[in-house]
């Protein structure tokens, strides 16, 4: 049976250490070669797989070079260039408007503060955290995506549901030196083993400390529903 460590802090540390051993090369899987490309890739990745985004950005990043290109193109044309991405019309609007602001208010540079980033169209705290961490080497929070959200709840690190609240709790218990890596480790484990619908608890390095482990627990703490 999975028995969590005595405190959430110990649980978070143990999880991080074990996952780091399991996924030593864990890192961001979006492809980009500069900060603007990173920002655009992250905006596109909302409710879309990184794999699909990487396919689409291959030609996108060849066609458009800098914020002015995106700001000046008709929105319909940009949307057409993104048409294999979920919500491509909305995302084309966000990208165009964010690039207009970057060109006009930020001298063509992607801003490096949370406030300025979250002022951009289509950029919430999660996107801003990714851009700060990978574009500016500024780590001031933990990126909470769907995998982090699910695993944190399943593993008993939080009972919160909203990403902002989960992040607030995680930064209290995850060692600061792991704030960036924690996300990538959860994403790798969430893709490989602890999947949303059918986690493979029998082959999980966290099984003995996981309070949702299927063979002994009836409830998936991520959803609060029975397995
Ligand atoms: S795969 Fe199972 S045991 Fe492992 S973290 Fe997910 S729910 Fe827990």
Q: What is the fold's blueprint, element by element?
A:
Elements: H1 8-22, H2 35-44, H3 50-63, H4 67-72, H5 75-81, H6 88-105, H7 114-118, H8 125-136, H9 146-154, H10 163-173, H11 179-192, E1 219-220, E2 225-226
Antiparallel strand pairs: 1-2
Helix pairs in contact: 2-8, 5-6, 9-11
Enzyme class: lyase
Protein name: Endonuclease III
GO molecular function: 4 iron, 4 sulfur cluster binding; class I DNA-(apurinic or apyrimidinic site) endonuclease activity; DNA binding; G/T mismatch-specific thymine-DNA glycosylase activity; metal ion binding
Radius of gyration: 19 Å
Number of E-type strands: 2
Number of helices: 11
- How many strands, what sense, and barrel or not for the largest sheet? 2 strands, antiparallel
Largest sheet: spatial strand order: 1-2
Structural class designation: mainly alpha
CATH class descriptor of the largest domain: Mainly Alpha
User: Runs with pLDDT <50, length 5+?
Assistant: none
Principal-axes geometry comes out as: elongated
Helix fraction, binned, reads: 40-55%
CATH topology of the largest domain: Endonuclease III, domain 1
Protein name: Endonuclease III
Enzyme class: lyase
Binding site for [4Fe-4S] cluster: 194, 201, 204, 210
EC number: 4.2.99.18
What does this structure look like?
- This protein is mostly helical and about 230 residues long.
- The chain has two domains: about 10-25 and about 145-220, Endonuclease Iii, domain 2 (Orthogonal Bundle), CATH 1.10.1670.10; about 35-135, Hypothetical protein, domain 2 (Endonuclease III, domain 1), CATH 1.10.340.30.
- About 55% of the residues lie in helices and about 0% in strands.
- It has helices at about 10-20, 35-45, 50-65, 65-70, 75-80, 90-105, 115-120, 125-135, 145-155, 165-175, 180-190, and strands spanning about 220, 225.
- The chain has a two-stranded antiparallel ribbon with strand order 1-2.
- The longest helix has 18 residues, at about 90-105.
- The protein starts with 7 loop residues before the first helix and ends with a strand.
- The model has no long low-confidence stretch (mean pLDDT about 95).
- The protein binds iron/sulfur cluster.
């Amino acid at each position: 049976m999975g028995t969590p460590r005595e405190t959430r802090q110990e649980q978070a540390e143990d999880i991080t250490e074990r996952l780091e051993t399991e996924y030593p090369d864990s890192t961001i899987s979006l492809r980009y070669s500069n900060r603007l490309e990173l920002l655009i890739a992250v905006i596109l990745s909302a409710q879309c797989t990184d794999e699909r985004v990487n396919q689409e950005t291959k030609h996108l990043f060849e066609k458009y070079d800098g914020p002015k290109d995106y700001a000046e193109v008709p929105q319909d044309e940009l949307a057409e260039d993104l048409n294999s991405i979920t919500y491509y019309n909305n995302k084309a609007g966000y990208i165009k408007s964010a690039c207009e602001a970057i060109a006009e208010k930020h001298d063509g540079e992607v801003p490096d503060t949370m406030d300025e980033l979250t002022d951009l169209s289509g950029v919430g705290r999660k996107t801003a955290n990714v851009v700060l961490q990978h574009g500016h080497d500024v780590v001031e929070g933990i990126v909470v995506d769907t995998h982090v959200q699910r695993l944190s709840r399943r593993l008993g690190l939080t009972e919160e549901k909203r990403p902002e609240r989960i992040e607030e709790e995680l930064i209290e218990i995850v060692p600061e030196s792991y704030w960036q890596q924690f996300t990538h480790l959860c994403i790798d484990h969430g893709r490989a083993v602890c999947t949303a619908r059918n986690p493979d608890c029998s082959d999980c390095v966290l099984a003995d400390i996981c309070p949702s482990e299927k063979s002994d627990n009836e409830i998936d703490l991520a959803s609060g529903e029975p397995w």
